[in-house]
Amino acid sequence: MIKSEFSTPQRQSKTGLLVLFANSLFEFMKAMWIVLIIFFLKGKATDIFWGIGIFVLVLLGFGVYSYLKYQTFTFYIDEEQNEFVVQHGILNKTKTVIKLHKIQQVNLKQNIIHRIVDVYQVNIDSAGSEEKEAVINAVSKEVAMALKAKLLDNERVEVIDNSVEVEREIEDKPFLKIDLISLLKVGITSNYAKSIGLLLTFFFTIYENLNHAGADELIDGSKVEDFIANYTAVYSVLVAILLLFTVIFIINVVRTLVKYYGFKIAKQKGSLIMSYGLIATQSTILKPEKVQIVKITRNFFQKKLKILEISIKQTISDETKKDKSTIEIPGCNEIERDEILQLIFNEIPEKGEKLKPNFRKLLFSIFLLIVLPLSAYLTIGNWFANSIFEYKSIAVFYTVFIFIGLLFGFKNNSLHINDKHVIMQSGAWDIDNEIIKIEKIQAITTSQLFWHKSLNIGSLTIHTAGGNVSFQLGNFEKINQYVNLWLYQIEKNESNWN
Amino acid sequence: MENFTNEPIDISALPRYEVVNLNALQSKYWNVILFNIVATFLIIGVVLVVIVYFVEEIHSIAWLFGLVYILFLGFTFLLCRISLKKRGFAFREHDVIYRSGILATNTMIIPYNRVQHVALHEGFISRYFDLAKVEIFTAGGDSSDVSIPGIKKEQAEDIKQLLMGKIQKQL
Predict the structure, then answer these.
(1) Position B122 in a domain
(2) Within this chain, do residues B118 and B157 fall inside the same structural domain, yes or no?
(3) Same domain for B137 and B73?
(4) Is the dihedral of CA A170, A171, A177, A179 positive or negative?
(5) Does A468 touch chain B (CB under 8 A)?
(6) Last residue of a domain, one of B83, B118, B151
(7) Are residues B101 and B151 in the same domain?
(8) For an interface test with A, which of B114, B148, B170 has the most A Cβ atoms less than 10 Å from its Cβ?
(9) Counting one residue from A and one from B, how many pairs have CB atoms under 8 Å apart?
């Protein structure tokens, strides 16, 4: 049907023009939103009149820009050279050429604007030493499907009519789907620290931007001071904590929903394909042979709610792509976990023999995190600045909090070893289980302090291409025995690491 | 298929990495370390003298600076000496072992079939003493790479050849 449709250079879909326009406008808004808000808050009536004028001009400018971009963007398949060619650029022309046989993945994506005008973004990933990527921003569904089929299977010249149907079937039959309720559960039970960080950065950016714009009077500190003066300190602290927690809960739930809405996993040619996202649909590919570490995380609440999180670390090919190489699956249940593990490891790794750290590990962390800071606090308070003793309650709270944390961290810390895997369990609140396949080990480091020699305790670090895992102060003889066994298992195979 | 067996592994009979006799670094390497210490401390010393000379308020406690300087020098000297004595390496049939550390003994083992590439590095002063450094890289990033300094130039070349051969064979 659309056999040689792509042999001549062609443009994107006409309706796609809207996508281009919206995208560039969105980028502009993202960079300028603070300025715009301040402008509308502080501007006088005449200013707003001017502002609207400028805004219309900006819109026109972006319209022309998008049109030119649309006009200059072409793509085609050079059938003689077996290459896929993308040309773009208004003043500086860029030509991207990808050999057809090097194309590994063709992904179709839709964000909210794509959905409105019913077009698709086509992402073309190629492998090889020179990693290249081509993005076609907006084409109609038929073109996108046909292009995908053509690029992925260039030997098959005849594009069978129902290939589109087959494609759809794969995409519609995911083997794992995370429903809204699971996502809500994840939202209220995890990532508190991340959300607090997000909240702080958000406030700091706004504060700094407002300061820069000279809008100090907008931040009315006096109201807060009045409030605190009217009530007792304890009461206001309580209200503040309550408020903070509510905000964190809401941020957590919203963030999880926006990021992972409609999370589904499908199998395709031995790989796992995941897609998720409310506003922009993300899709990631996971190749089981590239998996280095699988981390299963669960805390007390999640255990009660029967959910858990999985994060999968793949080979880090490039430090800058570190984030991209970790894949997170929020909120699945135990059956789904087992299915995923089965796919990655071809079996469900069992926890074999268990090694526990020596109690000195607990003593050492108490010394480092409680005794040292407390003595510094007492010293400074006693001899230099008596005033810091006013914050006694914080010191007591810190000590109790950290002590309980360390106690649980020690209780949960253990190393499990079976024939093919090493499983490291750790964590005070969120309990992590990191699973490493022994053949994925790159190097092993053992470490022993000289005064631990007679006690026969020492530490172990396992290096993989996806990061390191350390187990501290275990039975050193046992550790050495396992190191020797692992080395044997790795080295008896002639095959190189892949 | 007839050669295939699947006997249980006797763990106690496996070769043990922790009892392997390690080669010490070349004693000439101490000269390189000495040179580095002396050069660093010369620069610090000159800066100190200049400061003490120009800031009159601290003339009276100049001796304190001198004392700290000498103590610090001695301490660095001692640590470097211990560190050198404790370092060692061995190339086994299937892996390389490198040991280092002052308070802790760190032993790192990299199987040859995990090595990605090998490099030879000759420093300015090392070259004068006919020494080289062998650097071994894996896919595990910085933390799982090893660099063994203070090896005789020809020996380092041999090691590099050996490792390259091992890698080639496994591809």
Answers:
(1) yes
(2) yes
(3) no
(4) negative
(5) yes
(6) B83
(7) yes
(8) B114
(9) 100
